[in-house]
């Protein structure tokens, strides 16, 4: 369920302190992205390919990783 994913995502994100990051907002973004990609893939299989979905997720994760670390 979505609540379980939020707990896991929040725990993982909380372990990586980043400057200016709103933990609640980032948790929702990271939970919503795969949900939205999968819904689009089901409803419009002609639009996003599996590779497009993976690329979108990798891009988002790379942006999270590249944020400045709080020391």
Strand-helix topology:
Elements: H1 2-14, H2 23-43, H3 50-66
Helix pairs in contact: 1-2, 2-3
Please characterize this protein's 3D structure.
This protein is an all-alpha fold. The chain has three helices and no strands. The longest helix is centred in the middle third of the chain and has 21 residues. It is globular and about 40 Å long. The relative contact order is 0.17. The mean pLDDT is 84.
Largest sheet: none
Task: Give helix and strand order, one letter per element, not per position.
Answer: HHH
Portion in strands: under 5%
In angstroms, what separates the terminal alpha carbons? 34 Å
How many β-strand stretches? 0
Q: Report helical residue fraction.
A: over 70%
CA-based shape: globular
Overall SS class: mainly alpha
- Rg over CA atoms, rounded to whole Å, is 14 Å
Poorly predicted segments: none
Features:
71 residues; mainly alpha
Short description:
Helix content is 72%, strand content 0%. With 71 residues, it is mainly α. The mean pLDDT is 84.
